Amino acid sequence: MAKNHLSLSQFPHSSSMDHSSSSTSIITSTTPFLETPKQPCPKPHKKTIVTTLMEAANFTSSSFKEDTYFVSSLKSSEKKALQELKKKLSTSKELNNNASMWGVSLLNANEAASADVVLLKFLRARDFRVSDAYTMLMRCLAWRKEFGAENIIDEELGFKDLEDVVTYTHGYDRKGHPVCYNHYVVFKDKDLYERIFGDGEKLKRFLRWRVQVLERGIKLLHFKPGGVNSLIQVTDLKDMPRKELRTVSNEILTLFQDNYPEMVAHKIFINVPWYFSMLYAIYYPFLTQRTKSKFVISKEGNATETLYKFIRPENIPVQYGGLSRPSDFQNGPPKPASEFTVKGGEKVNIQIQGIESGATIKWEIVVGGWEVQYSAEFVPNAESSYTIAVDKARKVGASEEVIEGSFTSKEGGIIVLTVDNSGSRKKKVGAYRYVVPKCNNSNTTSDNMQLIVYE
Prior knowledge:
Layout: E1 3-7, E2 24-30, H1 49-56, H2 76-90, E3 100-101, E4 104-105, H3 112-125, H4 130-147, E5 167-172, E6 178-183, H5 190-197, H6 200-218, E7 231-236, H7 246-259, E8 264-272, H8 276-283, H9 289-292, E9 295-299, H10 303-310, E10 338-342, E11 346-355, E12 360-367, E13 372-380, E14 388-396, E15 403-408, E16 413-420, E17 428-435, E18 449-454
Parallel strand pairs: 2-18, 6-7, 7-8, 8-9
Antiparallel strand pairs: 1-18, 2-11, 3-4, 5-6, 10-17, 11-16, 12-15, 12-17, 13-14, 13-16
């Protein structure tokens, strides 16, 4: 059987929770499937909006190219529009010299570079039509003053039970953008829905909370040319109430599109159900072409694989196939993880070497969507010793999150973590990290890793 060798330098490698000083390898063996009879071709059908989007979507990147906000990279017509907008603002009788937005002074010459970032957001939102951009900016300033957006971050709005559940900012993507997650499944509970959206005043308070969450995320942005000037939004559509949240969703969409231009680099929709085409059809007329180009669509079952394209696993919440819990950020940046892929019909063995006698190794491992066999064993270096089953082979269900394991060795050897996907045709992605302390209590790392695929 042929072997293909791929160095793991091609994959994001980590010191994990601090790796051992010895080499580590992942060995993948493929078990072929029996050939199945060809199925008759389905009858042609009319494409829905979602079908068209899914066919066009490239999950390694969306069609949207993020701006650098360097004035030198602008077209001559765009530079001219920026200068015209700045002149229009400086001569405006409606604007005072202290006017600011998101902590950026719009007229202070000392903050001109940051002001350019803000102004370019409004210009791009209006295709560099100066008059329209000016009108949008002035309306936004008026709304922020009336709404009290500048001081909303510290308000107590009574939604503690929704934090880290409905809408929350959690970690960063691979380019450093803060990531905001949205999942409204809890509102299927009629009592909760009534408590949050029961009347107009309750809805207004919820909208204030949504603005508060967004403003907290914006606090993490740079507002500098070449810096991180936008967020990533991940919206989980699994089991989302449709009719109940239509009004709320429209309110949020309108509010954000009118007052937070160019704040989102990618809009990632995961667990997209069949009825999403109807929801999208409702929102479609209100979206600009630029906004549509930021969309990434991922159907049910592909959430983890899609998120891994944009976000490292140590920054992805455990419920989405990552290794991150809210408490992880309390002790600084999360420990990096190593990623792996197990194709349908394959088995992956992750070998952790360099374990010395008396050492205790701890590891975490996760596979998006699981439904695979998992086991762990200790293989001693001495040929006369016996292999020890640390975790007996078992099927891990789709709802299980991170598996944590540990083992104290009485002799030198290796730990082998096995992920067996031979019962499935579906490719799956996963991640792991571990620590192997030396006997002198010092932890060292290794970058010598190799992926061997047998086919």
